[in-house]
Design a protein that fits this description.
By secondary structure, this protein is mainly beta. About 10% of the residues lie in helices and about 30% in strands. It contains eight helices and 31 strands. The strands form six sheets. Strands 13, 14, 16, 17, 18, 19, 21, 22, 23 and 24 form a ten-stranded antiparallel beta sheet that branches. A six-stranded mixed beta sheet has the order 8-7-12-11-10-9, with no helix packed on it. Strands 2, 3, 4, 5 and 6 form a five-stranded antiparallel beta sheet that branches. The longest helix has 10 residues. The structure holds MU-OXO-diiron (FEO) and calcium ion (CA) (3 copies).
Amino acid sequence: KEGFAKSKLTFTPIAPVDAAVDAFTVPEGFTWQPVIRWGDPIFNGTPDFDLNNQTAAAQAQQFGYNNDYTDIVEIPDTKGRRAVLFANHEYTNESIMFPATMPAADVRAVGAAAHGLSVVELERKNITKPWTYVKGAPLNRRYLNNTVYELTGPVAGSALVKTAADPSGGKIKGTLGNCSGGTTPWGTILSGEENFNGYFVSPGTSASDKRYGLTSKATARKWELDDPRFDTRNAGYENETNRFGWIVEVDPFDPTSTPKKHSALGRFKHEGANVIVADSGHVVAYMGDDEKFDYLYKFVSAEKYRPGTTAADRAHNMNLLSAGNLYVAKFTGNSPLAEITGTGAVPADGSFDGTGEWLPLVVDGASAVPGMSVEEVLVYTRLAADKVGPTKMDRCEDVQPSLHTGKVYVACTNNSDRGKPGKEGATEVNPRNENRDGHIVEITETGDQTSTNFTWNLLMVCGDPSTGDVTYFSGFPVDQVSPISCPDNLAFDSVGNLWISTDGAPSGIGKADGLFKVTLEGAERGKVEQFLAVPREAETCGPIVHDNERTVFVSVQHPGEEGSFADQHSFFPDYVAEGATPARGQVRAPRPSVVQVFRG
Ligand code: FEO
Ligand code: CA
Ligand code: CA
Ligand code: CA
């Protein structure tokens, strides 16, 4: 927990970009280029991307669609010239990916192969040069719907997760709806299975089906036509949906490793998970359930982290997420409700703040929820949490601890239903009815991160002050910030500034989504400065800030998603001109991509 220095990454904030603009906008003095795009070939012998003639076999060896969580980890002993890139592929936009004439069965097969995860090696000549990906590199891997994940923890082998195809209840094919994630202190990647419900047809009648949004309607992608497990009304597959909604752990340095799904971290619409080693040595994972009025969770490992780097230390650390305590957050404000509803003005005591507690769901291997077993708490975590009275939040996305201060930041992206008839109204921690623009909660644990008590305040209440929105930036003058709406993913630079990427600003403040730096400490605490803006109809994901190299990476997800194959709304990132012959590897269509921004 060192003092705060100035970052080497200095920039003049960009002006907000109109949501209709199909451009990737960076500050003066910076340039950008993709690191890898949808369809880029990953293995030796993989065919080049062919927009009009995609096959499932080719897509299975190419970079997938809608990359969200992304990290770049340097490979040791390569003098900074080699790294491994991880990206997940949350979902697909078939209507802009494929020609309308493509047979439906082919659309399903190629779309399925564009889901999952990718690991790809990167190289550069030296640390001042941008990265390029290495086709055919030894660590390259695609994780697909037939990749087997080992279920760890108390639910492994439980009757709740057994199916006809997996009587062991411990070997799960595929990962779905991967949204955000985190990189662990031991160098593995965590990824959250978020909107898995959209891939299944279910009876839709049980309490858990209803609580997880599982219905009997045909799914958008209709994979149930090809594989019986995607319709849980089929005999033998009743439990298939219980095998999704977990935190996944991947070792990007071992392409033969078996990825894991960690049942001890609970099952919900996981946005992601971010881990910190507490002073006690236990590791703590913070996790949001991204649904209106759902909850904030944390996991505390039973075992302690080993800082050594031997194979035995690493193997030990890679088991830390399979056993531990699970908690859900309850926030209490300290200002009268009447003063903070309606106008959204700052409370009488000058800040949105109060105290909180972590309510136990599983402690020391035992259920803390009356009437539910440990397995039931972990599989039906939403139902378990409902019983203990946590705070209904405005869609928790990334929840990330600062390694500089130990404080934890929670991105509440928005909640259009707060305060609507029959719905819970504003409280001090979710202070706006019909919350369009979202806010950021800052949590200070009492003691280390294993504590069950905390204090909290809001770092910011988002919006566009220049259009009269009532906003709050920890007291920083509202006329000196970049407008910001719908915070989603969080990252920190090397000196402890917070970086926020957004998803939904076009429908909030009418501006393109982007990436923003927020000063957390000193006189400029609360100052928001926009670093980049993404193209038309895209969201900004997976920010990585390598400020010592003056380089920033983001994932650009779903550019042009409201268009059609015949009427594309975005041409990012290739921007092939109309009528021009594309260069090799380029196409005239939007491609979700990982982008690097650097001086030059
Ligand atoms: Fe996939 Fe919560 O955003
Ligand atoms: Ca207060
Ligand atoms: Ca997200
Ligand atoms: Ca989002």
